Amino acid sequence: MLLKTMVYTVLIGGLIIIAVALLFMGPARIVVTDSMAPSLRAGDLVFLRPSGKVIKPGTVVTYNLQGKLITHRVVEVLGDILITKGDNNQEVDPWQVRFSDVVGVPRVRIPYGGYLLEFVKSPAGFLLLIILPACWIIVIEARRIANNLRDSRAI
Q1: C-beta atoms surrounding 68 within 10 Å
Q2: How far apart are CA 114 and CA 37, in angstroms?
Q3: How far apart are CA 50 and CA 42, in angstroms?
Q4: What's the angle, vertex CA 43, arms to CA 115 and CA 117, rounded to 5?
Q5: CA-based Rg of the chain, rounded to a whole angstrom?
Q6: How confident is the model at residue 21 (pLDDT cuts 50, 70, 90)?
Q7: Long-range contact set of residues 80-89: C-beta below 8 Å, sequence gap at least 24
Q8: I need a surface site. Which of 22, 38, 59, 95 has the fewest CB within 10 A?
């Protein structure tokens, strides 16, 4: 029972943190590979901030490459072109990134937050975390109303 309570507490706490972060921290993305490990790992949830006007070597950026978002570190800047590389990759990326393709810079990382967010978006997660609690609240309120009606008739 204690383990079950702890799991629920961690799950609900994680959801609350993610919900608050999504409301106040701007765009987020889920890291899907370990190319940036150990800095970022698959399943992490990363919140982005605008990159600003200057991007230097060493800056981690998220950019759009043919409709796919990639988060890698800038290793070289050649005018408007960025050369990038995943921290866990041996070679630099074979493509060039334009400054205009940069979506943002990771600001906050929530380890494993992406897995939790994906679970919530799944049918099982929606049922477990939205529908069942809503039904539980309805049952509790119905019992309270029934008790109040019974008490008022007894008077």
Answers
A1: 8
A2: 15
A3: 22
A4: 30
A5: 23
A6: low
A7: 82/55, 86/33, 86/35, 86/36, 87/35, 87/36, 87/37, 87/38, 87/39, 88/34, 88/35, 88/36, 88/37, 88/38, 89/35
A8: 38
Exposure b/e, 135-155, CB count within 10 A at least 16 = b = eeeeeeeeeeeeeeeeeeeee
Q: Output the six-digit token pair for 61.
A: 């950026």
Domain 2-120 belongs in CATH node 3.40.50.150: no
Q: Which two tokens stand for residue 8?
A: 């629920």
> Residue 42's CB: how many other CB atoms inside 10 A?
15
Domain residue ranges in the chain: 2-120
* pLDDT (tens digit per residue) in 33-63: 999 999 999 999 999 998 887 899 999 999 9
Is-contact 101 38, C-beta < 8 A?
A: no
Lowest mean pLDDT among 36-40, 104-108, 123-127: 123-127
* Dihedral pair phi/psi, residue 44, rounded to 5°: -70, 150
pLDDT given for residue 120 in this prediction:
81
Task: Please list, in sequence order, all residues whose beta carbon lies within 8 angstroms of the beta carbon of residue 143, skipping any fewer than 6 positions away.
Answer: none
